[in-house]
Amino acid sequence: MTESAPKPVPRPSPETQPFWDACERGELTIQRCEDCQNLQHYPRVRCTSCRSDNLAQVAVSGLGTVRTFTINRVPVSAAYAADVPYAVALIELAEGPCMMANILHCDPERVHIGMAVQITYEPRGEVQLPQFKPA
Ligand SMILES: [Zn+2]
After folding, report:
1. I need a labelling partner for 129 at 20 to 30 A (CA). Which of 21, 64, 73, 86 fits?
2. What distance in angstroms lies between residue 42's CA and the mean position of ligand 1's atoms?
3. Mean pLDDT (the chain, rounded)
C-alpha cells in the first residue's frame, strides 16, 4: 500500500450485491433463512444454522448496541491519518446478528459496551458503507 492509497472500498460479490444495493437506498438488511428463520450477517450462500440456500435479504431497524470495541490510535495507512483516533465496534443488532463498523459522530472516548447506536452511512467509492452513530 502506498502513501497515497485511498481507503479500501468493498467489492460486491453475487452474495453481497443485494446487501450493498440496499445500503445504496439507505436500508440496512440482513439475511433470513426462509426454511428455519435464522437471521445472519454477513451475506453467505447458505444458512449457518440449517445449510439451506433458501435465503432472503430482509430490512432491519438499524438499531443496535455496542457489544465490544477498540479505539484505533495508529492509522493503518495514510488514508486513515486524519481519522485517528476512531472506534471500531462489534454491534449487536436489535434483531440479533452482529456486524463490525466504526462509531462515527462521537468522541471515541465516549464509546462504551452497551451503548445504544443507530445506522448511518459513509460514502466510500461506489458504495454506501454502513457505520453507526450514537442513538
Ligand atoms: Zn436455515
Report:
1. 73
2. 14
3. 95
